[in-house]
């Protein structure tokens, strides 16, 4: 069993049930009110009319009268589940340490994503996550342990030791796009000079569960952001433009953008790279353009030392877009309607690839 000090506040903040009355969880001051005896109810003689009584401020006798009072009262604010992760939510009036996550990443199985987040979070503290029931998605942790030391340097000794274990229950909606995580504290041991304590009061138990659940929520949020960054990086490095063939078996550029999207965005490419649109045919997806190669000083003003001008003869050209499976072909024809040869298509590729990918535009 691999045990490690956990960095959560659930041990250092919550597990202090045996501390003195002057700690942060106890009230301070005069508690004489706790010693007051409730007055007897007024007795009305039978020969007198009983006065009317308003029940507006009536306190029912069904309330719990056995709770702590005076210096034994825990004055800390309630522990709350913090839904900081994208599409996370809590159930109002739920007594459980529970949170729901809704699907935000379409190419990931949500329950597997959440399970891995829990496992990774525990692994940061070198604590194992064990499977109790795979079918019911029930898991339990090994022991989280914290030792409190006294003394200094070579004369240190362990003053007390606190250990906890948690159960993690996953719950899914029938459609699988919503997954709940419920955290329960199942074992607690505090050892000190006075012996072992294995019972934790309900408030501290709930605070420990909430603290652990909030750590999981924060880690799910971190994994969401990490995944989005990974996808964006992959897309930024992805080759969206390749050289291929159109339906006429001519050498063209194939772009992994839908034809409608490319049609509406390609004028930006024309403007940057020296093309002027003279006419267009939207039904046939044809742009008629005039090309005049900008001089080097123009490009250096825009791009600095990097020259992105196309090595193409000045003249009139046609850009024809065509849907080829899931891609869009970009065919370029000269003024006479002849497709540019493969040598020219290849020579222009480095600039066309960046331009038709709309990088840095």
Strand content: 25-35%
CATH class of the largest domain reads Alpha Beta
Stretches where pLDDT falls below 50 for ≥5 residues?
A: 1-22, 297-305
Largest sheet: 8 strands, antiparallel
Overall tally of domains: 2
What count of helical segments does DSSP give? 7
CATH architecture of the largest domain: 2-Layer Sandwich
Radius of gyration, in Å, reads 35 Å
C-alpha end-to-end distance: 55 Å
From the 3D structure, determine the CATH topology of the largest domain.
Answer: Alpha-D-Glucose-1,6-Bisphosphate, Chain A, domain 4
SSE order, one letter for each helix or strand? HEEHEEEEEEHEEHEEHEEHH
Overall average pLDDT: 84
Entry summary:
With 361 residues, this protein is an alpha+beta fold. Helix content is 26%, strand content 27%.
Strand and helix layout:
Blueprint: H1 9-14, E1 88-89, E2 98-102, H2 110-124, E3 129-133, E4 138-141, E5 144-150, E6 157-172, E7 178-192, E8 195-197, H3 202-237, E9 241-245, E10 251-255, H4 259-273, E11 275-281, E12 286-291, H5 296-303, E13 315-324, E14 327-333, H6 342-347, H7 349-356
Antiparallel strand pairs: 1-2, 2-7, 3-4, 4-6, 5-6, 6-7, 7-8, 9-10, 10-14, 11-12, 12-13, 13-14
Helix pairs in contact: 2-3
């Amino acid at each position: 069993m691999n045990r490690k000090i956990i960095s959560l506040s659930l041990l250092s903040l919550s597990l202090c049930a045996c501390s003195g009355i002057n700690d942060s969880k106890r009230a301070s001051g005069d508690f004489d009110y706790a010693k007051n005896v409730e007055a007897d109810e007024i007795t009305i003689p039978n020969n007198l009319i009983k006065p009317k009584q308003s029940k507006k401020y009536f306190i029912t006798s069904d309330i719990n009268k056995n709770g702590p009072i005076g210096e034994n009262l825990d004055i800390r604010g309630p522990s709350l589940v913090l839904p900081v992760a994208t599409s996370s939510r809590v159930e109002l009036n739920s007594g459980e340490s529970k949170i729901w996550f809704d699907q935000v990443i379409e190419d990931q199985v949500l329950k597997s994503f959440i399970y891995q987040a829990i496992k990774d979070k525990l692994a940061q503290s070198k604590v194992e996550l064990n499977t109790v029931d795979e079918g019911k998605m029930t898991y339990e942790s090994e022991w989280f342990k914290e030792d409190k030391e006294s003394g200094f340097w070579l004369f240190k000794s362990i003053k007390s030791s606190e250990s906890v274990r948690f159960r993690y229950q996953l719950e899914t909606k029938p459609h699988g796009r919503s997954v709940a995580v419920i955290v329960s504290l199942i074992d607690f041991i505090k050892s000190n000079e006075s012996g072992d304590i294995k019972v934790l009061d309900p408030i501290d138990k709930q605070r420990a569960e909430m603290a652990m659940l909030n750590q999981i929520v924060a880690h799910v949020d971190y994994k969401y952001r990490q995944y989005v960054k990974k996808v964006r990086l992959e897309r930024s490095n992805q080759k969206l433009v390749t050289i291929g063939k159109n339906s006429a078996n001519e050498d063209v550029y194939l772009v992994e953008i839908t034809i409608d999207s490319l049609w509406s965005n390609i004028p930006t490419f024309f403007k940057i790279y020296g093309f002027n649109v003279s006419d267009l045919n939207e039904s046939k997806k044809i742009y008629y353009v005039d090309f005049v190669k900008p001089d080097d000083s123009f490009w250096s003003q825009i791009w600095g030392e990097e020259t992105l001008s196309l090595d193409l003869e000045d003249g009139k050209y046609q850009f024809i877009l065509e849907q080829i499976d899931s891609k869009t072909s970009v065919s370029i024809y000269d003024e006479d309607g002849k497709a540019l040869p493969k040598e020219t298509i290849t020579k222009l590729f480095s600039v066309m690839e960046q331009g038709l990918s709309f990088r840095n535009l």
